Structure formats: structure tokens, C-alpha cells
Amino acid sequence: MEKNTENWLPDFCSRPKILVVDDQPANIRVLHELFRHDCDIFMATNGEQAITVCQSQLPDLVLLDVVMEGVDGHEVCRRLKSDLATQGIPIIFITAQHHESEEVFGLELGAVDFISKPINPIIVKARVRTHLVLKLQNDQLRSMALIDGLTGVANRRKFDEKIIADWRQCLRDKNSLSLIFIDVDYFKRYNDKYGHQAGDECLKSIALTLAKCVRRPYDLVARYGGEEFACILPSTGISGAIEIAERMKQCVRELNIEHSESDLGQVVTISLGVATVIPSVDFKLQDLLGSADKQLYKSKQAGRNCVSF
Ligand SMILES: [Mg+2]
């Protein structure tokens, strides 16, 4: 068959992950051969395995055999759709059964498409492409909706989602959760003096610098509003959080962004408030936010360009 590897998926798409599930290795081989040039292929020969791979790999698409011993395709689909973590993965049923009622049943379970065996390579490729593009476009839109357009760090919406998830996680693990609120000192004066365009550039540099101060993939720096940023540090105690806050303060000062209207050495500086809690049913997430905010206020009162906790 002729391959059109270069244009099979639009340029923006990263290399997709496909999970092929079938109890007949010969069927897996056919599909593997069709897609291995363009996609990373994972394989499973039974339902349990399929669910495990979905949870660990989060594939972009599942090609799912219906008739299998034990947990069959319908059950796999039901379980993936009832789990928040996997319900967004599109599923295409591939089966030798040609009854229309079978197709209806599969679609009602939440599958996006239905392909019959024996496999016609052109049909399979076309349908897989359609659903992969939809999935990847959807992922891209979703991630764009969670990024701050000016600075490129996470936005407020992402912050709100993540702090709730991290709170729950730390509550389960009895682990501490730290939060840093960050505010740019005399930013209004900066805008008045240098103009809003320079103000935007200043916020971009600061955001980039703050993001560089955290290293673990589950730490998050977000733009909280205007010239305010926030940093979520799961599984981090107060001393670790203070260390990061001090590093942020220092790194922003070392950017040496001129600010002739600031009383603090005529460069741009930030004030920070740190709060740490081990989530329990006695505390509310709101208390953690309130506490970090109070510490930030204390830093402002104490003369700015400092960390309070
Ligand atoms: Mg089968």
C-alpha cells in the first residue's frame, strides 16, 4: 500500500499513541503494520491488560476488539468511560459481527466509531485519522484554554483546578501542601512611568523567571491576576517553600529591570507570602489561600521585596 507518511496527520500533531486490543495476535499485527510509521503502538490481548495500559499510558485512541475471553470489549469501554482519567480517550470498536444492533450498542456505550473485520486498510486508516485529529485538536484547545496568553504560564483557571486536585491528593496522602503568593512591587508606578507595553514585557520576564525557580513537574506557577502570581508546591513543607520563595525573590531582583520609581534600589522586585498546611477535614482550602494572602500583605507592610510565612 502507498504510504503518505508526511501528511497523514496535520503538522501541529505530536506523535499519537494508539492502543490496539485484540485476543488474536494476528489481528494486532495487521493494525500495528498500518500505523507503526506514524504512531506509537501499544498492545493488549485481553480486557484487563487494556484497562491497565489506558491508565498508565493515556493513549490518544483505542482500537478495541469486542469478543474476548473474560473482560470483553464492551466492558472495557464501560470501565474506561466511567473513569474520569480515561473517559476522554476515543474508542473505536473493531469486530467481525455485522449486525446493526451491535453497532448501535457500541456507540451507546460511548465509542466514537465502529469498524468491521476483516480489516480494510483504507477504511481503518481514514477513520483512525479522523478521530486522532479530533482528539489532538481537542487536547490542544484544552491546554490553550489553561495558559495565560501574555506570560505563557498557567492561568487562573488552571490554578483553580490544580489547587483543588492537589488539596485532595495531599489530604489522602497526609502530605503538606504549600502555596506562595507573589506580587510585583510598585507595578502601577512602573506602568505609569514606562508604559503598558514595557509593563507586559516586565510581567513576561518575571513569569519566566518564577517558572524556572520550580523544578518538579507537579509544581505550578500561575498568573493569578494582574501583576499577581501564585505557586503551588504539593508535598512540600514550609522550609522547602521558603527556600523556593527566597530564590524567586533573588532571581527577579537579579533580572535588573530598571524601575526608577521604586524605592527599592531602582529595580523591579517582588513581595511574597508563603503558607503551608497538611490538609485535613478541619481545614478548608479557603484558609490556605487566605493565609498565603495575609502573608503577602505582611510582606508589603514590611517594606516589600521580602518573604513572609
Ligand atoms: Mg476477538
From TrEMBL:
PANTHER family: DIGUANYLATE CYCLASE DGCM-RELATED, REGULATORY COMPONENTS OF SENSORY TRANSDUCTION SYSTEM. The lineage of its organism: Bacteria, Pseudomonadati, Pseudomonadota, Gammaproteobacteria, Pseudomonadales. This is diguanylate cyclase. Residues 175-309 form the GGDEF domain. GO terms for molecular function: diguanylate cyclase activity. The keyword Transmembrane helix does not apply. Its EC number is 2.7.7.65. Residues 17-132 form the Response regulatory domain.
